[in-house]
């Protein structure tokens, strides 16, 4: 069922919804299954021999009966793991598919929400944030569409102001694409990111020669994409599988041959950096360290262990007999539809090209119907029946194997890292004095700017570029008030200083200061006070204890040097030392207390020792808003 959340829970998962234009009167299930078949055929044609890091694309049919308030659609979820390029390759496939199926509307999100907009974060409109973009970003006819929010309350627009439902959002994008298509400054960085992903597919591969059992070599020659599940099976093994690894029942090491295997760089790095000490009783023999064939032998051993674990898991599942694909009527219907659409290209049944396409169709279907557990794993044992491990043929081909690709990209030195960061973010050199002179004023301006709970407000020039100009008619020139634009408000705020701590302190002083009334008549109010006699008795006890406590503190202060360093008004001393303190005479005769001279001398001495640098004294004096000239003059006077 389609969800309306802005992001998915898993950090390495991408979710997607495909909304075709299906009539409500027809057979929705049949139309959705036909649409899924067309989508699968297109994806298979565009992703031949692409090595998915974890999961490939899968699509589940969601009819109106199960979709709730959402329109009928196809829903899928793919784990891309460590290789984020799989996510952008999915975007490329769906974007290209939306061109051929020009009535489909596609939504795609991950744990970051609408991650397509991350590429254009610097030029997004002001209203765009992860919460406001829910159900507002789609792909339609190869373009990114954004259902914008009106920039003013007075704007007249058919676009919704609140969070739209998926039903309404899909209808708006399909019926009013001229209002929802994102401007070219937003389209361009997304297009560049997709093209970068497609252009780097070949460069993201790594080829090397490995020493593997003959059956593994035959499987990888016919089904090169099996390298991914084998690497994951090896890297995710646990102690309970040690007995299976020690036996090597399906792929014994005695039949090993050299063959060339293609990895993705991510899979190759995972396999190289995962340590494994084989059991010598199994028969694994490795060249000594430093031998040129050491790396290929280790990689081949690890791949063989991965295939062994996959085959063992499949054998246990066959014994249980929980699920049989051939008995599934939906699979048979899906397979017949593929044959009618010419998916198998007139290959003879049971031939190697036919079996390769059949395995890809099986994997797509198993992922789409939501089958979990071992049934979803590659059927290694069944595939072994369709290949022939000709050891003599592999021995002859060893002399003509291509050389290994350079794997120096595994080690990145500081200079290479700086170059990568510079190409990505445009970093400046450390010794560039001109760059330093340009950065320091900007940094100082940034530190002195004020912000609210949402962060710093961008500059006025940035805001102009972030507006969606296509929402307003070009001929409508409007005059707005000075404060209607948020950029004007930010400029005005630069001239108005507000210290919340000082304001709170001043307000507290006003609220705490209260003079007693002159016509305080206890007798006239005796009737009102009689009902609170019990409360007054409790307050008198508290006041008596507090007075005793204050007198004790005053006696202790007499034995210190406070009286020598602090010169108080005589009336203030009498009020402090008086007993009872029942009247308000001390309020009427209030005089301000002079500053403690010893504390001031220590504060100025601390500031002098800081030599103009940051420290506690400069922070305290900064709160007083004293210029440095006054501080220096005060220091000379105390000296």
Outline of the structure:
The protein has 639 residues and is α+β, with helices and mostly antiparallel strands. The chain is 47% helix and 8% strand.
How would you summarize the topology of this molecule?
Layout: E1 13-19, H1 28-46, E2 60-62, H2 64-67, E3 73-79, H3 85-100, E4 105-109, E5 137-140, E6 143-146, H4 166-175, H5 177-180, H6 184-199, E7 205-213, H7 214-222, H8 227-235, H9 242-247, E8 256-264, H10 265-272, H11 294-320, H12 329-340, H13 352-368, H14 380-384, H15 391-397, H16 414-425, H17 433-447, E9 451-452, E10 455-456, H18 460-466, H19 486-493, H20 500-512, H21 526-529, H22 533-558, H23 562-565, H24 570-577, H25 585-588, H26 597-610, H27 616-623, H28 628-638
Antiparallel strand pairs: 1-3, 1-4, 2-3, 4-5, 5-6, 7-8, 9-10
Helix pairs in contact: 3-6, 8-11, 26-28
Distance between the termini: 79 Å
Biggest sheet overview: 6 strands, antiparallel
The outline comes out as extended
What value does the Rg take, in angstroms? 38 Å
The fraction of residues in strands falls at: 5-15%
User: How many helices does DSSP assign?
Assistant: 28
- Contiguous runs where pLDDT drops below 50 for at least 5 residues: 372-376, 460-494, 514-529, 567-585
Mean of residue pLDDT values: 76
> Order of strands across the widest beta sheet?
2-3-1-4-5-6
Q: Into which percent range does the helicity of residues fall?
A: 40-55%
Class by SSE composition: alpha+beta
Number of strands: 10
